[in-house]
Amino acid sequence: MKIKISIFFLGLVCSLSAQNNDDTSRVSTETAEVQKDTVNNANKIKLDGIAAVIGDYVILDSDVEKTLIDLKNQGASTEDITKCQLLGKLMEDRLYAHQAVQDSLLVSDDQVNAQSDRQIQQLSTQIGSIEKMLKYYKKPDLESFRAELFEINKLRMLSEKMQGKIVQEIEVTPEEVRQFFYNIPEEERPVFGAELEISQIVKQPEPSDVEKQKVIDRLNGIKQDVEENDASFNVKAILYSQDPGSKPRGGLYTGVTKNSGYVKEFKDVAFSLREGEISEPFETMFGYHLMKIEKVRGQEVDLRHILMIPEVSEEALKKAATELDTIRQQILDGKYSFAEAALNFSDEKETKFDGGLLRNPINFDSKFELTKMDPSLYNQVRNIKDNEISRPIREDDPRGGAPKFKIMQITNRYDEHKADFARDYIKIQELALREKQFKAVQKWMKEKIEDVYIQVGYENKDCDFANNWVKN
Q1: Distances in whole angstroms, Cα of residue 454 to Cα of each of 238, 271, 431
Q2: What is the rounded radius of gyration, in angstroms, for the C-alpha atoms of the chain?
Q3: Whole-structure pTM value
Q4: pLDDT tens for residues 242-261?
Q5: Are 63 and 69 spatial neighbours (Cβ–Cβ below 8 Å)?
Q6: Which of 19, 160, 301, 388 has the fewest CB atoms within 10 Å, i.e. the most exposed one?
Q7: What DSSP character marks residue 275?
Q8: Of the candidates 465, 432, 468, 454, which has an alpha carbon nearest to the alpha carbon of residue 181?
Q9: How far apart are CA 132 and CA 115, in angstroms?
């Protein structure tokens, strides 16, 4: 399989190589120099220099150079990127992180380690193996790679927390949206691409009671082995869990709160157990779980879980597809409208009460812009004509569970058009909110630059920075 490094990992690669020289944080602010001759101390060679200092964070000249090199190596266009721009971005990130520490917006080591483990798993899968990953990033061993990831992720997570705090309470009123839109000259108003409204009816094949009981019995056996024979829950999760997100970490999830995005049944069990306690097998929409509480920290818990998904028979799969074929024909025969059939027959609770209408996960609007549509969804609908109903489409579960089947319809199609206030209100609202957030961040940045110790290296003082890093 051809290796393709995603944009997400591009930033990671850039940060990784930057780590080779500076530890990224809290190093001496003296320029690194080495004697050319031990006899003549006057002749020295400059190995590296301080590009900038932001509070407790230091950026070396080599960090900027290596970031630019890595961008080129990853195929990114660097023609319009200057070293001054890269330095400015690195300075912004460290100012956020510095202020996060000052404001006690801390992230736990467990959270950082969990993120690093997820990245190692994703990178090694994408590149082919742990060994190939280390060779690709020119790292001698996994521990040094993990240590560098820890520093990178800690800085990034601190930065994200600070940025989130700056904008978390910012909202826009309908009047602000209106003023934002009508202040844009008509010839400069944005153009929105072609969009679709999509409806679907879903049938989810169910495993038999016999298969469900098999899974429950297996989980009970694991629970007994851990409690009575001191077996490792961590190892059991690595061996048997079907949750790809936590399996490599022994089923570990850290920092789980009651407001986390886990399903209700999962959180209910998590906050009903004591530290060290193992649950009985319980069911969620994903399958059956066994959970162990590792650590309780006030309103947060760290836990491990094992997910097992009952098998669905081929007979059940065929039955689901056949049912959808029948429903499709009944719609075509006029017995039901698509919306009525969705309400009566669809197994997808999120869409059935809305006539099967899909919602864009980004903004919960009913419209999907073609150029920004998820590739898997685009492939499902690209050949469906207006008001046509597709044949049953199989959609496999990325978690390894049973596939589901769906029939789909293009409910509405909107051509590319210049922004219209009534028609595109949600998108215009998003743009107005982003502008307000951007202004808030700029105001915060300007104030903090005045308050925080910042020193820009002599060779960079002539940079035309977007922010006033070189204080006058």
Answers
A1: 46, 45, 32
A2: 27
A3: 0.61
A4: 988 788 889 998 888 888 78
A5: no
A6: 388
A7: T
A8: 432
A9: 20
